[in-house]
Amino acid sequence: MRPADSSGMYQAYMNWYEQAKTSWEIGIELELTPSNIIYSGMGGSGASGDLIADWVWNRIEAPFFVLKGYHLPKWAGEETLLISVSVSGNTEETLSAFYEGVKKGCKVVVISSDGMLERVSRRASSFIKIPKPLAPRVGLPYMLYASLKLLESIGLVDDREIEDSIKVLKELKPKLSLDSKDNPAKHLADEIHFAVPIIYAPPLMAGVSYRFKASLAENAKMDSIVNVAPELCHNEIVAWERMNVDNYRVVLLRYEGEEPEIRERMEAIKEIVEESGQEPIEVRANAGDRLSKIVQNLYVCEMATYYSSLLRGVDPLSTRSIDRLKATLKRRLEYIHRYTELEDWATS
Ligand code: PA5
């Protein structure tokens, strides 16, 4: 494997523990008891919402809804906590949802490092400024732990599992580094960088699986297929009756202590894949609690996308197609200018 690229991405990935600590130490003073929560953000900024949803869905009373688009659901209102997350602060979908949230009287908390969202944040209940990362995906812990801090500060989740998950990042750092001899992320990259990975995950790892897919695309310029069990057992599994396995490499995202219905299902999926002549690769989290397991698999997979970029000789930082699409949409739609008030909010 070549040495680390010169983009600065490697160093940024190696700073995940420090990023998490920085955000976890932010002081947030807010009194809120929302009836429901909407987490609004796109791409690397929305990813934290998926991870949190997988963790909190059966531990908090309020529904937690991840919005990846322009418009708030009809039920959003004064009882809603809207968390608007954008690194650049200029993503039009997130700005649009922010605008609607203010108009509907939602309690809005902005997490951003820059841009229009910062400028209009005086309309929000709170603004959490995070350091600007090199790219949203390498700055994920800034957003994830600022969001978790917010949820903790309003009493929705407690701090112990979150602090444990930060320790996981610290422990994993040397194991995932370039000079580590037994590096699970490098092993994973070795197995997948030449193929189209098919990533199958149980619900706890749904957000991780989607982030894995997104970072494979952005860092390594690779496409992949993602599906979540049990749903995949009701449709996608049929494709394995006539699969040409040569082009694919199956990755199963797993964890110690899987519930029986998850364990048996993942084992059954594994058997079907094996019958087709392929040995699936298992990425298995063994860290303590559920959040720690999410964070462990996330970090291993994310570093595997980075190492895949090195193996494929591509620049992990550049995402030309995203920039191009954003510019095209801006030119064609000028969407955000529908909301002329946003400019007024920024200046008054
Ligand atoms: O990884 C990326 O660069 C993208 O997925 C961005 O996160 C996405 O386009 C949203 O941009 P922002 O994070 O600035 O709101």
Ligands, ions, cofactors: 5-phosphoarabinonic acid
> What string gives the helices and strands in order?
HHEHEEHEHEHHHEHEEHEHHH
Largest sheet: 5 strands, parallel
Task: Give the terminus-to-terminus CA distance.
Answer: 53 Å
Shape: globular
Number of strands: 9
Structural class: alpha/beta
Q: Give the proportion of residues in helices.
A: 40-55%
Kindly estimate the percentage of residues that lie in beta strands according to DSSP: 5-15%
| Low-confidence runs of at least 5 consecutive residues | none
Q: Counting H and I runs of at least 4 residues, what is the number of helices?
A: 13
Average pLDDT, all residues: 95
Oligomer: single chain
- Enumerate the strands of the largest sheet in spatial order, edge to edge or round the barrel: 2-1-3-4-5
What is the C-alpha radius of gyration, as a whole number of Å? 20 Å
Write a brief structural summary.
By secondary structure, the chain is α/β, with parallel strands linked by helices. It contains 13 helices and nine strands. The longest helix has 23 residues, at 290-312.
Please render the helix and strand layout as text.
Blueprint: H1 9-14, H2 16-24, E1 36-40, H3 43-56, E2 64-67, E3 80-86, H4 92-103, E4 107-112, H5 115-119, E5 126-129, H6 140-153, H7 159-175, H8 184-192, E6 196-201, H9 206-220, E7 225-228, E8 248-255, H10 260-275, E9 281-285, H11 290-312, H12 320-333, H13 340-347
Parallel strand pairs: 1-2, 1-3, 3-4, 4-5, 6-7, 6-8, 8-9
Helix pairs in contact: 2-6, 2-7, 3-6, 3-9, 7-11, 8-11, 9-11
The structure holds 5-phosphoarabinonic acid.
5-phosphoarabinonic acid binds at residues 42-45, 86-88, 91, 94, 135-137, 218, 319, 322.
